[in-house]
Design a protein that fits this description.
Length: 706
């Protein structure tokens, strides 16, 4: 065979093999793509797939941006022993075992270096792809661990397998803990965490994950194919609450001390802003097995109980609406003992009074007197219907609608639907707080309505939902009922509540610092069981300051066992102490460098004065401000983001407007204009005797301060 033919045959042979190989490859492609497609798809998805993961959970803040709940990032570290080269493992196993044996025991199992070395060798021999090393590592601990021998070689050579996860933390611990709620896997989310879940959770994200099979007693787990930190992680919305941390701290600790002192089973305290219904503080404490108190259950919104004497306010208000027109109307107390139908009613304390005015009856908290009023007005077929109509008029038959899950529905018997449960004693006993059930929040909302001159507000806990600096949703105060009773009836009810503090069952609570109004309450919880020792709930509900209500509050102490059980003794002191602290917080002021203004602890309002003094004050208080004036005298107005300082023009030969200024600046300006000034009062200028803008003719000016 000549040389040419030999070369051709070789070329044909090579081509033949290429053709065969191509056919085989094409067949395999066809087979995999079409015939075995489902088989390989399932295997691929079983090991690497795009999986849905939650975004980083949003934060929950108090009203002054104090962080109440946040997700801190932690790491879990494992090792894929199957990919570590023999020389790398042998070279570093002793050092790694020593390193792990001396690592912080908070994050890692405590073992000796010999134990770690044995476990590492055993895992490598078995080809363990997911050997557990540590969990709960913060970023500092993780950075330290990933630089350990062998692990420092990374994911490919060192077998480092890391996964990041968020863990919910509450920086203020127990403060409002149950109201903030719980976010955990395989459990119902409660409180704000549950109610606003769809906002806090944020948008779902997709991440490419790989499965790490495990045959060593643990289930298979999925970890990111790429480092999660290399990608932008989506985040949920932030929730801004109405809770004030300083007020919450005062409420929590005052209630805690009262529960310890009275050896109580638990307690509730809620502080609400009268004009808006915003909850400023809420505490729910329950005694645990070791006799310490913790936030376990939201009793404020979810625990129904008979209210006792705090419901007497509703009885009196109904009577004022239905015929008892004067709080000086005389009531028969019958010396605190009276029969209603087949039962005898007693007053809690002996007072020796045969008669008392309606106001005195309320101040004394006379069960007999209040029951007599209700019995005379409502213990008839039509009267019972009217009685329930009044309770519904006051909004007591409905839940408040507060923005957390689990609020209980009030229980009030209906004289028509529940006539088989209606007795001759029902009206007298309902009148002083039995045979109906409410939560502490529902009672508080009724008292808050009276403090608010009859306008019922919806209690709420969240003011805004934000995505970064953008407000996604704003929650404004909601009016549930514009007027629950006639203004004159509300005014008389408020006078009676002030009388409780001035000369009634709450007179021991009278404060030198803040005026208060309210009602004590004591309810026996096991009156149906005569064989048990008596159990009581003590409460106090009211508002302060009495003449211009800013806050309402309820305190309930469940089953005190240290001797005292009356509401005025066990719950009243909590109310008084919190009222004094909150009032001091609200009115505490910082005098400016030139007496120009008084800057409160909250964002200041409008004011006028010397610009440089305002600059110093705002710098000292770390308040953001914008000075657009460039002048000596300015006018200050607050905005949502900063204090705005604008030019305050002072015209020569015209009387300047000094309202809103401090006395020093006002006197300086007026005298500099050639006027003689007389000052009356202290503080800021409220008005001036000469009209601003008038021509200056050397007249005297009287400025009134407040």
């Amino acid at each position: 065979m000549d040389r040419k033919k030999e070369l051709l045959w070789r070329a044909y042979l090579v081509m033949f093999f290429f053709v065969v190989a191509t056919i085989v490859i094409l067949f395999r492609i066809f087979n995999i793509s079409f015939i075995e497609r489902e088989k390989w798809r399932q295997k691929g998805e079983a090991n690497v797939q795009w999986r849905t993961v939650d975004a980083d959970r949003g934060n929950i803040y108090a009203e002054e941006s104090n962080l109440l709940s946040t997700s801190l990032q932690f790491f879990e570290v494992r090792m894929d022993m199957s990919i570590i080269r023999k020389e790398d493992f042998n070279h570093g196993v002793d050092s790694l075992a020593h390193f792990l044996s001396n690592f912080d025991p908070e994050f890692i199992r405590q073992k000796s270096a010999a134990q770690w070395k044995s476990d590492l060798k055993s895992a490598r021999k078995k080809g363990n792809k997911y050997l557990f090393i540590a969990k709960g590592l913060d970023i500092d601990a993780f950075n330290k661990l990933k630089n350990a021998p062998i692990l420092r070689l990374g994911a490919i050579r060192g077998g480092l397998v890391k996964s990041r996860y968020g863990k919910r933390m509450k920086p203020f611990g127990e403060l409002a803990s149950r109201t903030i709620g719980v976010d955990r896997d395989n459990a119902d989310r409660v409180g704000l965490e549950g109610y606003f879940e769809r906002f806090l959770r944020g948008d779902l994200d997709q991440r490419l994950m790989k499965r790490l099979p495990n045959n060593y007693g643990e289930k298979d787990v999925w970890v990111p194919v790429y480092d999660p930190s290399e990608n932008d992680t989506k985040q949920g919305d932030d929730i801004y609450t109405t809770i004030n941390i300083d007020m919450q701290d005062a409420v929590h600790h005052e209630l805690m001390e009262a529960l310890k002192k009275n050896n109580a089973e638990g307690g509730v305290a809620i502080l609400m802003e009268v004009g808006t219904g915003a909850i400023k503080a809420i505490t729910n404490l329950t005694k645990s097995g070791d006799s310490t108190y913790h936030e376990m259950y939201n009793q404020a919104a979810g625990r129904l109980s008979e209210p006792g004497s705090t419901i007497k306010l509703a009885t009196m208000l109904a009577a004022l609406e239905d015929g008892v027109t004067n709080i000086d109307t005389m009531v028969d107390l019958n010396y605190g003992l009276k029969n209603f139908s087949d039962r005898t009613m007693h007053d809690s304390e002996k007072h020796g009074r045969k008669f008392a005015t309606m106001a005195e009856t309320f101040e004394l908290s006379s069960n007999v007197g209040v029951a007599t009023i209700a019995n005379d007005l409502y213990n008839s077929r039509d009267g019972r219907i009217q009685w329930i109509k009044r309770l519904k008029q006051f909004g007591l038959h409905e839940p408040t609608g507060i923005d957390i899950s689990g609020e209980a529905i009030p229980e009030i018997k209906d004289p028509v639907k529940d006539k088989d449960k209606w007795y001759g004693t029902t009206i007298p006993w309902m009148a002083h707080g039995y045979e109906m059930m409410f939560t502490p929040l529902q009672i508080l909302n009724f008292y808050n309505t009276v403090a608010n001159d009859g306008k019922m507000m919806k209690p709420y806990l969240v003011s805004e939902i934000r995505k970064g600096d953008v407000i996604k949703k704003k929650f404004d105060p909601v009016v549930l009922r514009p007027q629950i009773a006639k203004p004159e009836s509300i005014a008389k009810a408020k006078i009676m509540m002030e009388g409780v503090i001035l000369k009634g069952t709450g007179k021991s609570l009278k404060s030198e610092h803040v005026t208060m109004a309210g009602k004590t309450g004591t309810a026996k919880t096991n009156y149906a069981n005569k064989s048990e020792y008596a159990r009581y709930n003590g409460s106090f509900c009211g508002y302060f300051p009495a003449e211009n209500p800013m806050y309402s509050m309820i305190v309930v102490v469940y089953e005190p066992k240290a001797g005292a059980y009356y509401g005025g003794a066990v719950a009243g002191p909590v109310f008084k102490n919190v009222a004094e602290k909150v009032y001091a917080l609200k009115t505490k002021q910082v005098r400016s460098l030139s007496d120009t203004v008084f800057v409160s602890t909250s964002l200041p309002g409008t004011g006028q004065g010397f610009g440089k003094d305002f600059n110093k004050i705002f710098d000292y208080l770390a308040l953001k401000y914008k000075d657009k004036s460039g002048e000596d005298w300015v006018k200050v107005n607050p905005s949502e983001t900063a204090m705005q300082m604008a030019e305050r023009k002072i015209k020569k030969s015209l009387v300047p407007d000094v309202t809103g200024m401090g006395a020093r600046d006002a006197v300086f300006l007026l005298e500099n204009a050639g006027l003689k000034v007389k000052v009356e009062g202290a503080g800021k200028v409220m008005r001036q005797s000469v009209t601003p803008g008038a021509r200056i003719n050397g007249q005297n000016v009287l400025i009134y301060l407040n």
